[in-house]
Amino acid sequence: ETLKFADPVSENPVVRLTSPANESHLPLGSNRAAYRRGNSLIFAGTRDEKAGLFRLDSKSGEIRQFAEIDALDMRWFGLTPDDRNCLCWSGDKLITVSTGNGRSRDIYRAGDGWTRVPSLSISEDGLFAAVIEKKDETHRIRLITTVKGSATTVVESDTPLADILIRPKRAGIAYRRGAEIWLANFDGKQNYKLRT
After folding, report:
1. pLDDT tens for each residue of 131-181
2. pLDDT of residue 17
């Protein structure tokens, strides 16, 4: 699928990594797609009408599917810091998938009438994931431990929440509440609007 060509306007060299004939997506937000050593890249997509996670070797251009996932959300996924796993949504379940053998394990599922809002932020150390959920007109941010799958509510609001980001090297989550940017600690005790 890799193709090298010159940009028609600037004449700069361009490398197309995947074919436009197939659906291919990089993760949204701050979630990582590139391996730490820079030798590979993961993406979500479809090949032969099957959704899954793929690894692209940056040197050879070879694409290999490492997991086929039912109801994959192709926008919200990301690598863990050790590059051994990928967190992603399979329908309403947050799962972890081995990038080596493709085995998956359920981590979390919203309950009690709550539904997930498309979102996912993975902490720098890979120990936590933050997600947004909605029930009627109430939104909440949940902090999930990726090892045990336990979850706590950090923020709850009647105003729509979006664009969550776990702060690097801090126990905090930045998020958008309506048109404002807010910051909350993991325990939810400090939760305040940032000046913009």
Report:
1. 999 999 999 999 999 999 999 999 999 999 999 999 988 899 999 999 999
2. 86
Q: What are phi and psi of 39, to 5 degrees?
A: -90, -10
pTM metric for this prediction = 0.89
Greatest CA span in the chain, whole angstroms? Answer: 56
Q: How many CA atoms lie within 13 A of 147 on its CB side?
A: 3
What string of H, E and C letters represents the secondary structure of the chain? CCEEEECCCCCCEEEECCCCCCCEECCCCCCCCECCCCCEEEEEEEECCEEEEEEEECCCCCEEEEEECCCEEEEEEEECCCCCEEEEEECCEEEEEECCCCCEEEEEECCCCCEEEEEEEECCCCCEEEEEEEECCEEEEEEEECCCCCEEEEEEECCCEEEEEECCCCCEEEEEECCEEEEEECCCCCEEECCC
First to last CA, the chain: 43
| Out of 2-6, 84-88, 96-100, least confident range | 2-6
d(CA 97, CA 86) in angstroms, rounded, equals 5
* Angle made by CA atoms 188, 189, 192, in degrees to the nearest 5: 85
Please, are residues 69 and 97 in contact by the beta-carbon 8 Å criterion? yes
Q: Residue 144: exposed, middle, or buried by beta-carbon count in 10 A (0-12, 13-18, 19+)?
A: buried
